[in-house]
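EI: anyone free to look at a 175-residue chain?
SC: sure, send it
EI:
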Amino acid sequence: MKFKSLLALLAVTASCLLGLVGPAEAATPANPAARFTAQAQAAGLSTAQAHLLQSRVEQYLRTVGGTQVSANKIDLNGTGELVLAAPGLATAATCYYGDMCVWSGQNFTGDFLAKYICSRFYIPWTSTGSWRNNQTTGTRARFYDGNGNLWYTTPGAPVYDTSYYWGWVYSIIPC
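SC: here you go
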């Protein structure tokens, strides 16, 4: 069974590389990422942009885990979501009441991660971004470094910072 799946994957990959089939035709159980690439292309991204977006999604999946659910969205196993900024694709960057939200860019821009369950999550960025603690009133989020040391506790929600350096932040426990 595994051998047949490997052969199917190799056949689909070879067909795509040789241009015999496009991404939509290549979307098989052996290659589900092709469906998301096709979705990105249908939204107006070029082939190169769609492949770059898929590469970014795959990097996040290796870093933070979860399951890809659309061209630019990862479900964090029912505890939150990560939405990648991409031209032509909706970026649901609304930080709903009850969420702890972080962005890769300053002023709530760039890739967006919302955590709505009280469990540790990892920050995949090292640049300057932003965050919003929109949890229940008074709830404080705690920021930890790579050694597990508590470095910062936010004031009670609701509170935000439009310019925050992620370089030292390894993880956050939102409540």
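EI: The chain is about 25% helix and 30% strand.
SC: 👍
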